Amino acid sequence: MTEIDLTTNKAEAERHRLEGNEHFRSFRYHNAIKSYTSSLECQETSSVLANRAQAYLNIKQYERALMDSARALELDANNVKAIFRYAKALENLHLYEIAAEKISKIDLNNPKNKEIAKLKQHVQDKTNCVEVKLSCGEKDEFLRSKLPLTEIKNIKTIGRMELAEQIIQDKLHISSPELSSMKIPPPPTTSFIFISVFQRLKNRPVAFAEYFLSIDKNNYGDLLDEVIETEMIKCLFVGFDILANQSNISELLECLIKLADVSRFDIAVLFLDEAAKNMIRKMVERYTVSENQLSILQTLYAL
């Protein structure tokens, strides 16, 4: 991109930002979001992401506000407005402990941070809710990973019986009767079927992982956009960790990478704990994996 193009983009981004601010001041929050989005398409900045996060908060789209403020903090970790809006979104999702931890990094003695101090009083000593209900949210193109997906060639397809035999040999702590008696359902045709099968298999992560591997990667969006949850990704991690070997590691990682195309992926990954992430870190350390895949995986799952 030439210097002239960069200057033009910055000017367009600023024009849309000011337009968004005008909509916001007039309480036209949906129009403000459109203008901020246009600004971000020209130039991604922490301040505009924080502005759009506030607009999302005002229309009670807390998941989107969380994603925008999280991205704003990636670009500028000292953006106090983004920190406040990140914590505010967490509060509305009843994740009080995480919100309190985020606020703890702010100087609450600064008179400019009165609103943050009030928020701290409201969330402190409260515990997180047991289960978070998330609504579907499409990811903007600029929030998607900029890293290109890699084409995996010469993948060895392992049959179910061969795979089960290898599991028994490599993972002795899994009982062969459990594997042999478990009939893997056919690939799902609807989101409802996927959820139903997950509820049956969630305590059998190997079976769930095999079931997930049977799904065409091109169908992830149609099947999972509105239903993917952190619990499902954790279960998949456990199953993949057990199934993994040098022959199939590339295929398993490609599934995890392709999963990032699902619209609620960012939110689901946001709540992955370190134990789950460590499982994937250790899995990729055990085998030879491509640097490209490893780099993409580390970016997508914040490893």
TrEMBL record:
TPR repeat locations? 46-79
Q: Which GO terms describe its cellular component?
A: protein folding chaperone complex
Taking every annotated instance into account, which residue ranges of this chain make up the domain RNA-polymerase II-associated protein 3-like C-terminal? 187-277
Ordered alphabetically, the record's keywords are: Repeat, TPR repeat
Q: What is this protein called in UniProt?
A: RNA polymerase II-associated protein 3
Protein species of origin: Brugia malayi (Filarial nematode worm)
Matching entries from SMART domains are given as:
TPR (SM00028)
The record's similarity note reads: Belongs to the RPAP3 family.
| InterPro entries with a match to the protein in the record | RPAP3 (IPR051966), RPAP3-like_C (IPR025986), TPR-like_helical_dom_sf (IPR011990), TPR_rpt (IPR019734)
